[in-house]
Write a structure and sequence with these properties.
With 317 residues, the protein is an alpha/beta fold. Helices cover 37% and strands 23% of the residues.
Length: 317
């Protein structure tokens, strides 16, 4: 297979050649060159590629003739890349990687994989376990571009309903939205926190009346919707649309707040924020999490895989 791109290689400030891949070398020659450089042996490269050593050696010699440079120093027992060879090796390996990704993309298109998916999510739900899920997605659907929209949970339904997002991941809203399909995927524990030097942190036991005396930090969407189960306990309240911002405001001593427990467990914050011993929180207080989508949404293989695997997100470690 021939490559129909052009590239200019520059070594030591001197232009080597303006190379048209279709008239200089083939993918097979690139593979031979890269395999020989990685294995440090023409015979090992031949075994790796399933070719004879003479074919590999001749392929690399042909490249050296076309480039008019030596790619390998052959004076020792094993071939060693020359300075020019080391520079070209990096380019060659990159070209093969791009070619591999292109082949993956072509294969994905042949399987009718979507070219783009948009996920609207409360960023506090991008849990550590999501990393493995996203790695698998990237391997299975290399041609599908993911776009993440970070929103306050109350704002996610509007984006999914309007079609601006394909899927939503949010803390459950009160009541059911008949315009959306929602699936409960689990409970995420929350904890009340305040900075170590906040007056509440000095208390051995905290009651609701104690919380009401100090500024409360709460989440509100851009259209004024609030998270369920978050009551306003006093007159002094600051609002924002991001749980990470709530954590930061609490850290700086501007008030107390409920945040997901995993946000407190991060080392930087566990050393500076205190979990308050709230009397009514004898057991962990948790908020339901749901996945939302629009009824009738075109469900391609990438959408279906992501939607199904999100259901196990809270079980991932």
């Amino acid at each position: 297979m021939l490559i129909f791109l052009h590239s200019i290689f520059i070594l030591g400030g001197t232009k080597l050649a303006s190379i048209g891949f279709n008239d200089m070398y083939t993918l097979e020659q690139l593979r031979m060159f890269v395999a020989a450089a990685e294995t440090g042996s023409f015979s090992a490269a031949a075994r790796k590629l399933g070719k004879s050593q003479s074919v590999v050696s001749q392929g690399i010699i042909n490249m050296e003739i076309d480039f008019d440079i030596a790619l390998f120093e052959r004076s020792g027992r094993s071939p060693v890349l020359t300075e020019q060879g080391r520079a070209l090796f990096m380019h060659a390996r990159s070209l093969l990687q791009h070619h591999y990704r292109m082949e993956q993309a072509v294969s994905s298109f042949a399987g009718d994989h979507e070219t783009r998916l948009v996920l609207a999510l409360d960023e506090a739900l991008l849990l550590p376990g999501a990393s493995n899920m996203l790695k698998q997605f990237a391997e299975l659907f290399p041609a599908t571009q993911l776009t993440f929209i970070s929103v306050a949970s109350p704002d996610a339904p509007g984006l999914v309903e309007s079609g601006a997002a394909d899927l939503g991941l949010m803390f459950a809203a009160p009541g059911l939205n008949p315009k959306l399909d929602s699936v409960f995927i689990g409970l995420l524990p929350f904890v009340a926190v305040a900075a170590f030097d906040h007056p509440l942190s000095a208390m051995k036991s905290v009651e609701l009346s104690d919380l009401a005396q100090y500024r409360q930090l709460l989440v509100k969407g851009v259209e004024g919707q609030v998270l369920r189960d978050f009551d306003e306990l006093g007159p002094d309240i600051w609002w924002c649309n991001n749980l990470y911002m709530l954590r930061e405001l609490a850290l700086q001593g501007f008030g107390w707040s409920y945040i997901p427990r995993h946000l407190l467990e991060e080392e930087h914050y566990s050393n500076q924020l205190k979990a308050l011993p709230v009397e009514i929180d004898y057991k962990a207080w948790s908020l339901p999490v749901e996945r939302i989508s629009a009824p009738g949404h075109s469900r391609g293989p990438a959408f279906t895989w992501l939607a199904d695997n999100i259901l196990d997100l809270l079980d991932q470690k």
